[in-house]
Amino acid sequence: MTVPGRRSSTFIRLLRSGFTDPSTAARLLDADALAAVRADPVLLDALGATADPDLALLGLVRLAEAQPPDELPGLLDTLVSAKPLRDRLLGVLGASEALGDHLARHPRDWLTLVTYEAADLHPGLPEFERGLAEAHDPVALRVAYRRCLLSIAARDVCGTIDVAETAAELADLATATLRAALRIASAAAPEDAARCRLAVIAMGKCGGNELNYVSDVDVIFVGEAANGTDEGKGIQAATRLASHLMRICSETTVEGTIWPVDANLRPEGRNGPLVRTLASHLAYYQRWAKTWEFQALLKARAVAGDPDLGRQYVDAITPLVWQAAERENFVPDVQKMRRRVVDNIPAAQVDRELKLGPGGLRDVEFAVQLLQLVHGRSDATLHSGTTLDALHALAAGGYVGRADAAQLHDAYRFLRAMEHRIQLYRLRRTHLVPEDESDLRRLGRSMGLRTEPVAELNKAWRRHASVVRRLHEKLFYRPLLDAVAQLTPGETRLSPRAAGQRLEALGYADPAAALRHLEALASGVTRKAAIQRTLLPVLLGWFADSADPDAGLLGFRKVSDALGKTPWYLRLLRDEGAAAENLARVLSAGRLAPDLLMRAPEAVALLGDPEGLQPRTHEALEQEVMAAVGRADTAEAGVAAARGVRRRELFRTTAADIIGSYGTEDNPAEEDHGALVDRVGGAVSDLTAVTVAGALRAAVQNQYGDTLPTRFAVIGVGRFGGHELGYGSDADVLFVHEPREGVDEQEAAKAAQTVIAEMRRLLQLPTADPPLLIDADLRPEGRSGPLVRTLSSYAAYYRRWSLTWESQALLRAEPVAGDADLGSRFIELIDPLRYPMEGLGEDAVREIRRLKARMESERMPRGADSTLHTKLGRGGLSDVEWTVQLMQMRHAWAEPGLRTTRTRQALAAAHAAGLIPTDEAQILDEAWVLATRVRNAVMLVRGRAGDTFPSEARELAAVGRYLGYAEGTVGEMLDDYRRITRRARAVVEELFYGG
């Protein structure tokens, strides 16, 4: 009979002990197998101290029920009387469902945990080999392996060993297992064993003595023929033994599996032979190996098989590892590896990835290995395959700050402990932090977080991950600043040589100059130097992400020299999170934007304003320019002010373009490249228009006061009229005037000519601002015709003499400055020419095609690659624009949407009207946008216009970065450009020449 209130008090006690399902727990405690101990308060307290009391109790009941009747009292007596056994056994049962299953299948294995001697507390390889010695087949090996694993897990969850010691013991157990598996394989094929010498080289975490509970064990096999055996037959025998070893460890049996043995780190990966001779290995590494392979070899360790052969292999490859930093492609390889992305991780898992996600374990491991490769060539103390040991050696040698190393050490240990406990639960290979509340609770409690385990775990995890996210700053760059600033007495620092090696490895072409810049920026005790010391480690990382880190650092020094004493500048960089990163991107992306900034460094303020990179409206720009011209005492001063506005706004546009194309840590790169192109084209065209308008106002005021004797308008044509100007484009224009009432035509014409000459002079005066070239060669009769005509003269010319190409040129004509009414009447005049009623006749179509073919053959520069020329090349701007313009001249009379000066709008209208299929419209649009971006990129990178890709490697890489290609993929970029434009040319052949 149940005493009233008894159940409720037990229920409450179970809750207080940490059980989440007290009802089930109470039922399990009533199990017959626990009758002898259920009332013992020690048992309940011990269960409550585990990571998951419910799981521990269930496992204990299963273990007790599986005991033979005569052995159950021994288990229960030891459980309540021996605290070490109690803590170990219940600790494992509360942390690992998989090991609870193992104990239920092998109920006598709990005896493994009884011994409590010095050798048992810290077993090494010999102890694990003895534990596996009786295993003579794969099934027995699995059982013995789990028995050894049980002892490691018990010491781990009880805190007898820390995370590093746990990882080292797991690596020792893996070594013993590989030896046992090779012993079993050799016993199964003694003839093969006699024909060869086989060495097993551990790689990865096993080689580094830092293995997880469940992980692939990476290996490389080295073989030699035994004395008197043909080499080919010896290697075949070694290959059979190696294959059998892998199957013994990897295959699933009634006792499950141990872990996969992965040999893909061998030369040529899975495509290469499983076993090679030592000479074959060396030949490959000396001739073909990539940087990442030497990075992997950092952890190579001979673990099984022929010890002499294994030692010879390690001795032979070690010098090659430490010479890797001297290889020709080391720097670009390092940059590619540093830019490792997590694109292969499903988006939903990125934030839960302990290993590969941002702030994960791989970040620390990779960074430490990189510093080992850079500095280990001259410092043998760094030659360790264990991450934490190597980090300690880097700190001791001054390659990493001690405080930063200590923070990363703690973060890495915490993350590895999380990884261990996550894997221990079900002994499955995973690096994902669980989402289920109960799993998180068990994980938090297993890490010693008992008050609010889930909240405390998440807080600690995020804190440590944030430390790792800044590790490039801490490991790579901050020691460089410490080396040149030398502010902390007694702190071991990087030597100048080591600092130069590091800068070179991070992509700096001139490490000596970079160090001089760093010293100038960071030395001293001023507020400026202190703020810059804080910023520079981060900035150096952003510079290193670009194609030209040297230019970024030099540019920052110049800006700092110009503005360093300005309080708002230092405050901007310190307090506006985006400003510093935006500045780094702009300074290291090429020459144009930094040149614009250096002419007026105060424009850096735009980078800290959330709205600072948005293009200003035409109206706002025109109002500012006209006001500046009106206030000026002279025409020169007025146009100088207008050009200053243009320079500032060009910087705004280039900065927004660069940041949108590169992306930042908080905002990914703009995916809609067409939108980027449209923004640049619209902004630069508006800037050009208001600058021309300002120059016109200044010229008129200078020569004629408030009123010019003739009405005067500037018509933009070509890219100017189409709102498609690039950074390096001239302003193509037509000039039109109309004498005011009572003014002689000759006087009016002279006034118009005078104003044009004055505008040109003012816009090209030597100043710090970029000149603006006005090109009027598209006027009637070209350079042979008058520079400016009256509206009636244009009408007469077009009525009598106009050629088809002139009508085509007018498709992108739009008033940009001057008398608005006159500009509108000019557009009314030319509309019937560019949009002819009933479309073009066949003769006109043939003439356009003939002109296009002639241009292709005559205007392509000598020696230029037609597949890479953005303007005149195959599928380039000219191909797309002439195809669209032909459709406009044939159909715009009936389709109002085609009456636009903008290429992309006209193409979209043609598609909407059914004149071009969707696929073909997309192909032409993609090619046009890409060719335009390439032209813009060339100007941004080189500071001068160009119609084809740069030939210089660093400039070509910078163009690639702007276009979204990673370091080392310029070949892919050129292939993509050729592919996209080749498809566009096929559409042009069909629509322009064949349609």
Describe the structure.
The chain is mainly α. Helix content is 61%, strand content 5%. It has 45 helices and 10 strands. Strands 1, 2, 3, 4 and 5 form a 5-stranded mixed beta sheet that branches. Helix 14 links the parallel strand 2 (217-225) and strand 3. It is elongated. It starts with 5 loop residues before the first helix and ends with a helix. Mean pLDDT is 90; it is low at 1-6.
Please state the average pLDDT score: 90
Q: Which band does the percent of strand residues land in?
A: 5-15%
Unreliable stretches covering 5 or more consecutive residues: 1-6
Structural class: mainly alpha
Main β-sheet description: 5 strands, mixed
Helix tally? 45
CA-atom Rg in angstroms: 38 Å
**Through-space gap between termini:** 98 Å
Strand count: 10
Helix fraction?
55-70%
Envelope shape = elongated
Task: Describe the structure using short key phrases.
995 residues, mainly alpha, five-stranded mixed sheet, 10 strands, 61% helix, disordered N terminus
